[in-house]
């Protein structure tokens, strides 16, 4: 704890005082024993775990500008078209994604009747 940051020290003292009473602040060493130290560490661990969990739950992915909770997606449905980056919206998209790594729209636009070129690795953006 830095002595040249009195605001921070005051804030920490306030938290300790709310938690353990004024005595702890007035004379930390007299009332601060190993059990309290342990309790404090456990509480910090619990707090950290809580924060971490809520961060994971709030983790969002951006799909065409719409934020969607990541846990709504399993790995398979996270696949998007390698050309236009759209996510499959109909079963035909899924079929094309599995076979050609692109959505049905891009299949019709770039792959249909030119499957050989596509399978050789040609892509519209390179
Ligand atoms: Zn596409």
Topology:
Blueprint (H helix, E strand, L loop, with lengths): L5 H15 L1 H5 L1 H4 L2 H25 L1 E4 L2 E4 L21 H10 L3 H8 L3 H5 L7
Antiparallel strand pairs: 1-2
Helix pairs in contact: 5-6
Explain how this protein is built.
By secondary structure, the chain is mainly α. It is built from seven helices and two strands. Strands 1-2 form a two-stranded antiparallel ribbon. It is rod-shaped, with a radius of gyration of 28 Å. The protein starts with 5 loop residues before the first helix and ends in a 7-residue tail after the last helix. The protein binds zinc ion. Zinc ion is lined by residues 81, 83-84, 86, 102-103, 105-106.
Defining key terms:
single chain, 126 residues, mainly alpha, two-stranded antiparallel ribbon, 7 helices, 2 strands, 57% helix, binds zinc ion
**Approximately how much helix is present in the residues?**
55-70%
Multimeric state:
single chain
Q: Work out the radius of gyration.
A: 28 Å
What compounds sit in this structure?
A: zinc ion
Going across the biggest sheet, name each strand in turn. Answer: 1-2
Give a short overview:
The chain has 126 residues and is mainly alpha-helical. The chain has helices at 6-20, 22-26, 28-31, 34-58, 91-100, 104-111, 115-119, and strands at 60-63, 66-69.
């Amino acid at each position: 704890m830095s002595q040249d940051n009195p605001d921070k020290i005051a804030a920490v003292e306030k938290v300790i005082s709310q938690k353990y009473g004024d005595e702890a602040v007035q004379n930390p060493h007299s009332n601060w024993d190993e059990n309290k130290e342990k309790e404090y560490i456990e509480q910090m661990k619990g707090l950290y775990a809580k924060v971490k969990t809520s961060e994971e739950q709030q983790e969002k992915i951006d799909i065409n500008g719409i934020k969607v909770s990541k846990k709504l997606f399993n790995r398979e449905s996270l696949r998007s078209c390698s050309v236009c980056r759209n996510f499959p919206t109909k079963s035909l998209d899924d079929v094309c994604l599995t076979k050609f790594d692109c959505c049905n729209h891009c299949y019709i636009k770039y792959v249909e009747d030119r499957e050989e070129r596509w399978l050789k690795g040609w892509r519209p953006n390179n």
